Amino acid sequence: MIDNLEQGYFGIGIQNGKTPENLGVLWRSAQNMGASFIFTIGNRYAKQACDTHKAVGAMPYFHYDTFDEFYKHLPKSAMLVGVELDEASVELETFEHPRRCVYLLGAEDHGLSKLAIEKSHHLVKFDTPLSLNVSVAGSIVMYDRRAKLKLQAK
Q: Closest by alpha carbon to 17, among 137, 153, 142?
C-alpha cells in the first residue's frame, strides 16, 4: 500500500492570465506532467484551440473570481507555491517540491498579486535575466517537480 505522503498530487493555474493561448498550452503541459487539476483566478477563458489533448475534459478545471475565493478552496494540507520574481523566492533548481501542492502563476506583465505573494507558503523563481512566458514557466516547474520526485523514488 502506498503512503499518502508518497502519493501526493498537484494542481496548477494562472491568476489574471493575459492570453487564452498561454492557458491552453499550460493545460496541455499539465495533462502531460500529471497534474490533478487546473484552474484560473480572475480572467476566465473558454475552450482553447491550443489544448489539442483536451486537458480540460481529462482533469477537473476550476475557476475563481478572486484570489480570496481560490484561497478559501485550497485543498486541505496543500501548500501554495507561487511562481514569482520576488526577494523571498528561492531558485527552482534548489527547491524541494511539496508532495501536495498547488502552483500559482501570474501574467507576464503583472505577476502575482501582492495578496497571492503574501499567502504563498513557498515562492520560487528562475535563474534567468528576464521573466518567462507563463505557460513556459509552468511547464518548467512541472517538469522539475516530476524529475525531482523520480530521483527521490530511486
A: 137
